[in-house]
Write a structure and sequence with these properties.
The complex is a heterodimer of chains A (about 325) and B (about 325). Helix content of chain A is about 75%, strand content about 0%. Chain A has about 325 residues and is mostly helical. Chain A has 2 domains: about 60 residues, no CATH class; about 240 residues, Orthogonal Bundle (MetI-like fold). Chain A has a two-stranded antiparallel sheet. Chain A is flat and about 95 Å long. Chain B is mainly α and about 325 residues long. Chain B has 3 domains: about 30 residues, no CATH class; about 40 residues; about 240 residues, MetI-like (MetI-like fold, Orthogonal Bundle). The two termini of chain B are about 50 Å apart. The chains are: A mainly alpha (about 325), B mainly alpha (about 325).
Amino acid sequence: MTSVPSITAVPASSSRTLSHRVRSWLKRAWPVVKWTAGFCGEGIIRLCGWSAILFVFAIFLFVFLEAWPMLSGGMNWGEVLTSQYWLPTSRENPQYGILALLVGTLSVTLLAMLLAVPIGLGAAVYISEFCAGKPKETLKVVIELLAAIPSVVWGFVGALVMGPIIVRLTGAPVGVNLLNGGIVLALMSVPVIVSVGEDALKAVPDSYREAALSLGASKWETVYRVLFPAAKNGLLAAVLLGVGRAIGETMAVLMATGHAIQIPHSLLDPIRTLTATIAAELGEAPYREPHYCMLFVIGLVLFAVTFAVNLTADLVVKGIRSEKNR
Amino acid sequence: MRRTADTPELSLQSLAAAAPSQVAAAADHFFAPSAFEKRKKVKEQIAKYVFMAMALGLVVPVVGILGHILIQAWPAMSLSFLLENPRENMTAGGIWAPLVGTFFLVLLSLLAAAPVGVLAGVYLNEYARDNWFTRIINLGMVNLAGVPSIVHGLFGVGAFVAFAHMGRSMLAASCTLAVMTLPVIITSTREALASVPMPFREACWNMGASRWQTIRTIVLPNSISGILTGVILQVARAAGETAPILFTGAALLVPVPDHGFQSFFPYRLGDRCMALSMHLYTLRTQGNPDLPESIEYGTALVLIALVLVVNSVSIGLRSYLRSRKRW
């Protein structure tokens, strides 16, 4: 290595000593470099691993910071939660009551769940217990694709396809209303319920089914006497995740529920939800004025509610796992 | 045995004496289902068909809606619909500008989310021990996946647009999308890594390889296609989202050059851009009476087709991988 003849104009001796020096330095430093690189690399990997939780904190933090001017003063929780007057753009007396929005969210979620839970759990039972081979795989793929349809497309379908149908069938003045939103949300949250519910049923050991069948139970009796009780936690988690999805859905309810801030009295009343309010008004709200901050307060409420729902669902599922390990 | 009274007496003697046909008749009589058993059978059939109706009840409306959209969109469908920009207050022309916008938004969000997501999956599957901290990370992931999309949008406004001074821009919108789709990549990377058998790693460690060398040379090459599935899924998810980009960087209308090199790279990082999902929302809410419905339906159809095709690729890849797995 050292006796390579140099063909450059640079004096050979100096270049050789320089490269030699660099090389020997590298040789001595290499373990340190390697260790440092490994340390940094591992640090980066660790940081990425923590990213999920970091981002959850960041989301809470930034939404909280933007909502802070309103939270720290100028806002009365009792009034906000019990007043149904949401008049943020009024010049003399702006009012920020979210009761009507809260009721809107809850009613549309409730309606969606009334439609989606029986159908979703039924479909989960069918896929898991009554179906096998090719049809099963096909159904699962179709449900997965159903989950992939973007929410803005659902809103579009609700407004343009379902709306006229509802008007024709019920004679309602407007097609975009509570019923429309409920149906659209049901279709959107069913895939979650089906896939989580099916997982829950699949997690019941086969020995339970065999025992039931050997006692002479029919499949239906096995399902509702053995599988439902055994998988009840997982099925509950499926329903909760569906609820979480329905509460947080934005574009579909924005486009399909109409835009009336009121407490609904019938299925055919147009309503507005918490999510739709943020989506509709944040663009016009002046930066860091009370209206803007109030929308972030609503975001905080949504964050808290979905956090609680998802946490409960997760704990319920964990409950099954630990029980099974015992 | 409720029916022993009216069944013919069965004994070895009588059985030997009886003709085969008589034996068969007696057996039929003896083993015939009781009313109770018949009811049970009927119940089971009913239950089966009810459950089947529920499962099919999910498929039928969706197929109907998709068919309806396809039929309504048909008049607008042509290559020029994809390649032309919206014209005349969006009542004519095509969807080139939003299509390109969606492409770049998804690309940027992928560039941000894929490395972080894959490394996070590596950490959770290869480095993390099963302790309380890992459980908290898992909990965080479940919740990150469950945060409403509009709250992600608020986070984007607070963190990227205001705090990081990105303004309403393509960059801010992509970052928001990246945070939102991170759980998708983490979860599927983790699954892909977990499906590599432990003996592979043990063999590599026994050769004196470090943990990172094992991951780089054994674990990642054996799970790369599974990781890819998750990445593709992220693309589909990011392409369809509207709420997170609504206030972070999507614009109603951006003039885009019709021809030439510039029409392929029409947006700058710091500018707002159009997006397909946002475009569909704009068309619907603008309430322009001159807007032909076929353009609206056409936009919806392209968006659905994009998402479904990308998703099908992911599903197909996954089932292909499962079928040829050798361990």
